[in-house]
Amino acid sequence: MRVTMGARERTRPAPATGEPVVDLAEIRKRFDGNEVLRGVSLSVERGETMVIMGGSGSGKTVTLRLIAGLIRPSAGTVHVFGERIDSLSEEELLPIRRRMGYVFQGAALFDSLSVHENVAYPLREHTSLGEPDIRERVLHFLSVVGLGADVLDLLPSELSGGMRKRVGIARALAQEPQMLLFDEPTAGLDPTNARMVAELIVQLRGGVCDTAIVVTHDLELTKTVADRVAILIEGRFAALGPRDEVLASSEPAVQAFLAGEARVTK
After folding, report:
1. pLDDT digits (tens, 9 = 90+) for 2-17
2. What CA–CA distance (Å, rounded) separates 20 from 133?
3. Bridge-partner residues for 110, per DSSP?
4. pTM (predicted TM-score)
5. What is the number of helices (H) and of strands (E) in the chain?
6. H-helix segments, 13-130
7. What are the distances in angstroms from CA 36 to CA 29, 133, 206, 234, 241?
């Protein structure tokens, strides 16, 4: 898969004004008395890539799971696609979740299923497509992530780490979501595969799915894909704004965090 990094600025759609795709208001989340999020607020507009950074245990994956409706806040409200979701039942959440694609850390592929079966799984579960149409869509989205028909029958154990991540992205794209959620998409990858995944996220902005929220501690990934950046420190956003502005922040806690991550990713 070859992607030109400079294409990002030429092809990215301009963020739309109006109602945000995601709106978190004063979110608090506790687990067994431990408050992980302490009054977090965040809006994401259509057409932008928001990167949420933070150290281990900072609450960034918790934030992503709240947006997906996988967990509920202890306080505050979560609106997605203009609808408040934190009080919805599982059944009521289904149509909203189908408008999102979730790329789990480690890809979370089914070990006993082939690549074809993994990507086809959500289509069989949530659509009435026949097998020829499912196969066509599987092949299409594998091609989007730079993979061909030669991987269809392979098991996840037969794939490299980078290929597993790409299959996970293809599965998330299969239902043609309006927004993609990425949980540590470059974790565990060598620099070459990490860059390939970062370039793929940029490439998706060309029309496949123009809105994304990326949770990561990877500074290089952030520099490559982000429009705006939010940095979680001790359960609150220590910085939130345009990428270059946040990465140049003079806030001591932010500087210390970024300096630490720069050392890790070199």
Report:
1. 333 333 333 344 444 4
2. 33
3. none
4. 0.86
5. 10, 10
6. 60-67, 90-97, 115-126
7. 6, 43, 35, 8, 22
- Tokens at 96, concatenated: 């909203």
First to last CA, the chain: 24
CA distance linking residue 248 with residue 92, whole number of Å: 42
Give the integer Cα–Cα distance in Å for 264 and 214: 19
pLDDT of residue 126: 80
d(CA 8, CA 205): 8
Mean of the per-residue pLDDT values for the chain?
A: 87
Q: What single-letter amino acid sits at 21?
A: V
DSSP state, residue 145: T
**What is the spatial order of strands in the sheet that 34-44 belongs to?**
34-44, 22-31, 75-80, 83-84
DSSP code of residue 13: P
Is 200 within 8 Å of 234 (Cβ atoms)? no
Please count the other Cβ atoms lying within 10 Å of the Cβ belonging to residue 112: 10
Angstrom distance (rounded) from CA 243 to CA 218: 14
DSSP secondary structure string, 194-206? HHHHHHHHHHHTT
**Among 179, 49, 185, 200, which Cα is nearest to 108's?**
185
Summarised one tens digit per residue, pLDDT across range 36-56 is 999 999 999 999 999 999 888
Tokens of 196: 């390939």
Query: How far apart are alpha carbons 241 and 251 in whole angstroms?
Result: 13
What distance in Å separates the CA atoms of residue 107 and residue 185, rounded to the nearest whole number?
A: 8
Euclidean distance between CA atoms 174 and 219, whole angstroms: 28
Strand-strand pairing, 83-84 and 75-80 = antiparallel
18 token code pair? 């109006």
Helix (H) or strand (E) holding 167: helix 161-173
Rounded Cα distance, 232 and 229, in Å: 10
